[in-house]
Every structure is written in C-alpha cells, then in structure tokens.
Amino acid sequence: MNRAALVIGLVVITLLGLIVPTGAVVVDGSSDDVFSDEGVTLRPAEGPNGDYANIDDQGNLTVDITDPGVNDEALTVVQDVFVMENTGSENRTVWISHDANDSVTLYRTIEGGLVNEFSVGQRAIDGTGGAVTLSPGEQISVSIAVNTRGSGTAAGDTVLRTLTLKTRINETQAGGAGGGSGGSGGSGGSGSTGSAPSSDDGNETGGADDGTIGDVPVGADDVAVEDDDGTAIDASAEDVDPASLNDSGASEDDRPTAVISDRNTFGGLDENDQPNASATDVVAEVDETVELTGSESLVETTREVDRNERIVKAMNITVPRQLENRPATVSMRVEKDRLVDTAPEDARIGRLTSRGWQLLETTVVSETDDSVLLRARTPGFSTFAVFQSPDVTYTWTLPDGTTVEGDNVRTAFDEPGIYTVSLTVTDTDGDSDSTTRRIVVNDEPVVTIDRPQNVTPGEEVTLTANVTDEVGNATVRWELPDGSTATGRTVNYTFTEGAWTVRAVAEDEYGATGSDEAAIVVGGAARGGGGDGGTMVGEGFPVLEWLVVLTLALAAFSVLAYYQLPAAIPSPAPLVGRLWRWILADQRRRPDVIVCADVSWDADRNLFRIGRLEIEALGAGLDRVELDITDEAGETLGRKRIDVGDVYEYESAPELVPGFADRPVRPHAEFTVRVRAVDDRNAEDVVSRVVVPSPDSAADGSVGLGQVAD
Q1: Which of 78, 156, 280, 701 gets the most CB atoms within 10 Å of its CB?
Q2: Domains of the chain listed by start with CATH number
Q3: Shortest CA distance to 78 belongs to which of 88, 68, 89?
Q4: pTM for the structure as a whole
Q5: Residue 685 burial (CB < 10 Å; 0-12/13-18/19+)?
C-alpha cells in the first residue's frame, strides 16, 4: 500500500507493540503458542510495508505502524506486512490470536480486486475460524486492516498489544515422538506418540469430530458456518438424499423470479420468500461503488436449475433460531470424484426456499487431491445443495445501456440523480423474468441563511434558509442562540443585545446533511460591526459641505489656470490628457486593507477582537467587508459580513467577530484572521493574519496578537 496515503486524515490512531513469538509446533491436534524454529517461520515481507515489521534480539516479530498511523472514520489497510511459511515436512494449520479490539483484522493479502470491509473479512485469519492450512514450503503474506468507522477509537489509543501465531499438525508419521523444543521466550510443545486420525476418504482431519481443508476448519459433516465478522457459528448438518430433491415430473411452465439485492445486506425477499415490497432504494454518493447481487432470485425447480438435475451433495444446515434469517457464510467440502469432469469453479451452492432455489455466489476456497472446499454467502438457512454445473444466467442492464453477465454487478455514478438498474434471470428452459431497482445517487444540501442587515434589540426578525438539494426533499432545523430549536425554511426570533450565532441544518430523506451559520451582532456593536461603532466616511455627507469644498476647489483651479498654465503649456491638450489618465488610474484602483492590528480572542465572551481595522476604496465605493476566523485545520471558528454600502473608507476600533459556540479556540492554538474587502466593481483586497498565542494566554483567557501571514 502507498505509505504516503496513510498520513491523510484528521486523526492518527497509534498501533504499538504487536509481538509475534516465532517457532515450535504442537503435534497432538490441540493448539498452543508457537515459538522459534520448529517448522513455521514468520518474517517481514519484501517491499516497503515490510519495514513496519522487524525481528528483535529474542526472536520476536514486532510490527509497529505508529508512523504513519491510520485514518479516522475510515478503513485503513497496510498490505504485505509479514509472511508466514511452513518450513516443515507436514501440512500445518495456522491462525493468529490477539487482544485487539474489533477494529483490527489480520487477513491474507488480497492480490488485485476490491479491498473493502467484506473482502477483508472474508480473508481474515483471526482465530480458529480463519485458520489457514499450509503445505510444506507454502507461504502466505499477512496484511493488517484497521476499521475506525463507528469504533469509538480515539487518537493515541493502543488498539493491539500482543499477537500470537498458533498451529497444529494435520498429519504426522506414525511413531513420531517428543514435544517441541522450548522456543525463545516460551515453553516447549506437548508431545504425541501416534499419528493424527484421518477420515475414511483421505481428507485431513484434526480429530474425531473436526479437521481442516484449505483455510477453513470443518466438522465431520464437512460443513463450516461463519457470520459476517468471521466468527464460527454453532451449526448442525444433516445429510439429504440428492434424489429426494429431483422434480423431473414438475410442470415446465414455472418461471424464475428475478430479485435484485444489495450485495452486502441482501433483503430482497420477505419472510415468505416473496419479493420484498418494502425494500428501499439503494442509496449511494457520487463516485461511490454500488454492488448489487441477483443471488436471491428464485428458480422454482431443480430441473430448471440443471436439466440433468446433477446435485452432488445436499445437506440441511441448522443454526440457532435467531440466526436463521441473517446473512452468513457457508463452506461445504465435496469429493472431487462426485464432480466427474466438471471444474470445481463451475459448481454452485444452492439454497432451497419455500418458492424454489437460490443459486448463491460460490467461490473455491481451496482443494486437495481428493476434495474441494466451496464457500458461499447466504441470506439465511435451510437445505443447501451443490449443483455440478447449473445453467441459469443473470443479465444486468445499466442506466447507460451497458449489459453485464454474472451473479453480481458493480457500478458507480459521477452525477447525482435517480437511476434504474434491471436484471433478467433465465433458467435452463429459456424461461426468464426481469425486475428493476432504483439507485439514488444523493447530493448534500447546500444551505445559505438570509437575515436582515441591521437588527435592534427586542426586534423580532425573520431568518430564511435557502436550500439547494438536487436529489431528495430537505427539511431544515434551526439552532437558535437561547438553545432552542425550530423547524422550517423560515423562523422568527427576537434578539437581545450582543453577538449571536444562528445555525441552520438541512437533511434530506436519504440522510445527507448540509448547514450554514450566520453571525448576528445586535445593538451598539451592529453599526460598523465594532464594539464602539465603526464609522463610514462619506455616509450621510451633508450637501452644504459638498458645495463648499467644490467651490474652493474650482477657485483654486481657476487661479492656477490663469497664472500658470498659459506659460507652462502651449496648448491645453496635454493637460487634458494628463487629467484623463489620472481619472482612469483612479478607476483602476482596488480596495486596500490598510490596518488590521491588535487581534485577540476574548474567551469569556467568545468574541474575536480586532483592535483596529482600516480599509480604503478610493477607486470605487466599498461594498462589503468579510471577516473569517479559522483554526490550523481550516475549521471556521467565527464569521462576519459587514455590508457598508458605497463608502470610500471604513474604520472600526475595535471590530468584534462573534465566535461559534461549539468551536472555541483551543488553548495555545494558532488561528488565522482573514479580511476581504470588496468594492462596487467586485475588485478586492485580501489580508490574513496568523495569531500566535502568547505564553500567558491560557491564564488570562485571551489569545494575543498574531503575526502577519501575507
């Protein structure tokens, strides 16, 4: 994995001290800690991520990904961290136990394909449920995934301290003797004088009741069941005669039922195995991968799944009642001679419901010379059968007209909107059924608050939330200064004197949210925005004073022209040109933030104070002044807009900016003041100041003057 990608994120979660003892084996079918040099070797992987693992002086493998750490509210994977290898002469089943919380998964490295929570869980090697059988000389690469979504893991938490490799021998030579030698830092293995039991069909087992094939421990009934977290489920299995499931005499008029489900959650059928009328739209974000499956579709008869009704194995699997209708993973072992000439990857696990067969997405987990282990994810439990080579097709049609063949389809959309995906299921008789499913590609509502420019104490004002939401219908919730809330696009509120923050949050029916906050200064601080009242030079300028100034200017120009211009300038044309160029230069002038000084934060009043603010706009009238306060991460701490209305100078001493109540300035943390002056022509000047807290700022509840950032 790209190591640089791991440092992107707001929070880093520390993983420390992953200690993996290496070595010895246990030969009696039970499991124990594994120590050094007895047939199973651990070592750092080749490549950059192997640098996170090293062997210490005691022979322990230590993995430390404190740097770069992992992302907050995300699935972070570090591929190819260390390697496990069977250096002995017998098959060994290995797995890993550790004391990590649920956010950590160790899994077999995924070479290509999608890496997500589901694929990581499917390849987990945590606990006996994730055991892997290694033949002599075989090795696997181990990766680490940390899922911090909703885990409650905080920055700096140590999520895993110890990690132990465990093993058992699947098959030994008769007459083997002696326990394993003591490993570095641990005790010796226990001994055995006999060979490990084996089943009649030659498949390896670890005892009378259980064994392993490939990477999954299976019982004597050749079945294993796990939940979506990879935890083994206590299940019982009863053989079913495949002939009892044949229905050659059934009517040929039965048609399949096409069902589209979310690949991760299913839910396409109700408790009566009917298409679920309450199934909601599939909701996704722009560019998010959508995975759909047709494996809940129903084919009514065995003959319509396979004209020759070739069922090679059938079992009724029972789990605790509360798990009967929950998704899980089923693994079934099948003798290869039952498949005849069919390739194992062409076999399919089917589940029998009250209305027919569901052909589940099936993968080959592993195989030996005599048998193969098939795995499928099922939406529930009943009778399962392995079909040798079913003849049912699934054809998807995407919104752009593209067609895709297969059980599942993956797609994504680059624009918000409501799209339709269709699925056609065709059985071996050529009968088909089609269905559709809506995909809502949602956008986040955009909210802006309209409010009066001037508010006086005790005045009831109307606030309006303007919401843009391309997909969905958004509702608005207001968070008001007195702690109360209100709903609706508009709200009336009476303000008292002071600086207040109002927040509007819009949420649509699909869960997307957007918000805006408005800073409102009421009373003496409102005019000009300053606590002492800013002054706008030119505002309300008396007409008489204008006439006096204009008259004096004309008189001075007349005297200059009479006495100086004739002698200095042969023609008035150069003077006119010079005056015209001066006028044009004046028109090209931009606003100028002259002074922004003495910036501080009043913690008691939650106000940012600019001791002196001066702005000129001589080329055109100043239209507005925008003030933004942000922290080091770019989070907005306070905001203010001053609509000054076509004046040429703006002065305020002091200028107050109310802070957001839920975002106080952290002690000793820098913040940035950004001043943006915009004139009537939309020309602008932007000045930023970085405020560096003084050493005694925590004691007096304020933050001192900042340094210039521009």
Answers
A1: 78
A2: 3-196 (no CATH), 236-441 (2.60.40.10), 446-523 (2.60.40.10), 589-708 (2.60.40.4070)
A3: 68
A4: 0.47
A5: middle
